[in-house]
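Um, can you check?
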Amino acid sequence: MAKPKKAGSQCVDEVVAALNEVARSRRLRDEWRRGPWTRAVKEALCRWGLDRGYYVCANRVADDFRSEPKKKRPRYEWLFDVTCLVYQGNYLTGVPLVAECEWGNEAEIYDDFQKLLLARAEIRVMVFDAAQISSTDKFGKFEKAAKRFGMGQPGDTYLLAAYTEDRDSYCFKYRLVQTP
């Protein structure tokens, strides 16, 4: 397995690119349903992790990777919607990425985000439907929670991905939050 590196702008940019591919999917735009969107987000993040040699865990996406060698398929869900792990032998040595994807109401979105506060990962990704957040600042409450979390560490990195419709174009808007 690949050795993890500290979350850098290249990794964040790669995750953003993977999510942008999901947002551009014509197949998904034609019919808004949570299940297919969640699956597409998980697939994209799993592909990102597998391409880097990580051990990847996510529920209900393994069939999409059937053509891959068995060792390179995502495993069952483990703690988060998507988890990328690094092992040396039987020892867990790194967690490059954890992600939660929630399309429900505002309370459900914030509940899932709070799981990410507990994670010891290089990048914590929260994907959500911006239309479900009542505030005009779709990212403010997340950012405030990350910065106020008493057990956070300097440099904790959160990538917030708010799915939105902008002038008949569907896309993610992003905010990168790093704790001081």
Remarks:
- DSSP finds five helices and six strands in the chain.
